Amino acid sequence: MRHARRRVVRRVTRLAAVGGLLLGGAMVTTAVASEPAAPSIGVPFTAPPATGEGTDLVSRLGNTRTAGSWVDSAGRPVVAVTDEQAAAEVERAGARAKMVSHSMSDLKSAARTLRSAPRVSGTSWALDYKNNQVVVRGDSTVSGSDWSRMTEVAEGIGSFVRMERTEGTFTTRINGAQPILSTAGRCSAGFNVTDGKSDFILTAGHCGPDGSLWFADDRGRQQVGTSLKGSFPGDDYSLVKYDSGRAGKGADVVAVGDGKGVRITGVADAEVGQKVFRSGSTSGLRDGEVTALNATVNYPEGTVTGLIETDVCAEPGDSGGPMFADGIALGVTSGGSGDCRAGGTTFFQPVTKALTELGVKLIVAKSAGGTGAAPAPSATQGAASPGSPAPITGTDVSTLLGRLTDPRNVGPGMLVIAGSLVALVATRWIRAEQDRKAYRQYYSATWG
Predict the structure, then answer these.
(1) With 242 labelled, which of 76, 98, 104, 376 sits at a CA distance of 20 to 30 A?
(2) Cα dist from 123 to 77, 109, 311, whole Å
(3) DSSP-derived secondary structure letter, 277
(4) Strand partners, 343
């Protein structure tokens, strides 16, 4: 947060009401001339996520006979197996089998043992399916004595636990950006979601506690919404409810910079080896690969589990930004180490779990037939593009706020109801004004 206070923000930004974020630099995606199809409410949180062939085989064969799956450089699914019969079944299904010594049950048991050990901030571990190992990493803040204790725990588990030191520090990526701002810091919007009554921004949980007010400018004049239903630590997701209640036109698009965007058509679980893209308000559109799943990270603020590990770079301010491939929503940015000059490791909260826990649905583009979400492609199809390009459209935040205060939108029934809600509104107004004043005091050093 010290960096956030020192950074001078002189350019007032505007948050478009789209399922994405504002970015500064020019990106590589080309916008199409036509308007995107009208969004639909698709991929309900109760629906099973789209999965690849390798994931299906692992699920069918079970944790004692397999040890995960991934996609090789040719886009073919590979399944780690522990017996010849399982290998034959994988080959018959058209995937490639790799014999390994340790099952998924062994890998998960090792992760549970690490979790039960005394917590050490600055460490992480993840399941490395390709090498049939559990990889434990310690950043530069981990002392020699703490690292030695963790090494003893790992040695007690077995040789398939690999210990690695890494440069930099594992931090949440909260400060240093402009798209959505509060006294808790600055973050990037992720995907637009809905519960059928109201629309929300899905972003990172560490961006701010429940009740945090979010603005699109550093003077607190353009209020976007309020945080609710967040989970951090443990998980790393939260909702920001739009003040207008609606995300507006273009809600199915995530921005990738320079007025361009990508249509979101579905949601899925990520697979190891999958080519993915991340968009963030600090570092823009970046690509990389999923390196591991079920990652645990011990941030200074607390431990988060079940994350997607990637080699995509990220920087402060990218928190909450979307990760996707071929227009399929995969995750929201949590944290990591390194930067986009030297590279690093970035972790993502899976979107599928967030939707399930929050009880919301992703707002997606209509399929060619106009009947809802397009089917999510599997990673075996070689997801190598962000998705279908689309122009960024939407309603300005000030316009959205204007609708709330326009007396022409108030009918007689609303006036009657308002009489019984004066006390409640007054209480909430006082709370909002208190937050607004604190917000302005926090960012006053950045005013030009």
Answers:
(1) 376
(2) 30, 18, 17
(3) E
(4) 339
Q: What is the pTM of this model?
A: 0.73
Annotated catalytic residue: which of 206, 218, 318, 326? 206
Q: Angle CA(260)–CA(261)–CA(263) in degrees, nearest 5?
A: 150
Q: Are 264 and 372 in contact (CB under 8 A)?
A: no
CB 135 within 8 A of CB 128: yes
Q: Which of 203, 199, 206, 210 is nearest to 243 (CA)?
A: 199
Query: How far apart, in whole angstroms, are the C-alpha atoms of residue 280 and residue 181?
Result: 14
The answer to whether 236 is a known catalytic residue is: yes
Dist. CA 181–CA 222, nearest whole Å: 10
Round to whole Å and give the CA distance between 162 and 417.
63
Hey, what are 143's tokens? 């002392």
CA distance 107 to 102: 7
Note if 319 is an active site residue. Answer: yes
Distance from C-alpha of 399 to C-alpha of 244, rounded to nearest angstrom: 10
Task: Choose, from 319, 334, 378, 388, the residue flagged as catalytic.
Answer: 319
How much is the CA Rg of the chain, to the nearest whole Å? 23
User: Rounded distance, CA 33 to CA 260, Å?
Assistant: 11
DSSP class of 400: H
* Cβ partners under 8 Å of residue 400, min gap 6: 17, 242, 243, 244, 246, 248
Tell me, what DSSP letter sits at residue 375?
A: P
CA distance 421 to 319: 36
Catalytic position from the list 128, 218, 236, 326: 236
Q: What is the mean pLDDT for each group of 10 consecutive residues in the chain (448 residues)?
A: 35 32 26 34 39 86 97 92 97 96 98 96 96 96 96 97 91 49 76 94 90 78 86 95 87 82 92 93 90 96 96 89 93 93 94 96 69 37 57 43 32 34 44 52 38
Q: How far apart are CA 256 and CA 279, in angstroms?
A: 6
Q: Which residue bears the tokens 């699109």?
A: 216
Task: Report the sign of the C-alpha dihedral through residues 192, 195, 200, 205, in that order.
Answer: negative
Q: How far, rounded to the nearest angstrom, does the alpha carbon of residue 380 sit from its chain's CA centroid?
A: 22
Residue type, 56: D
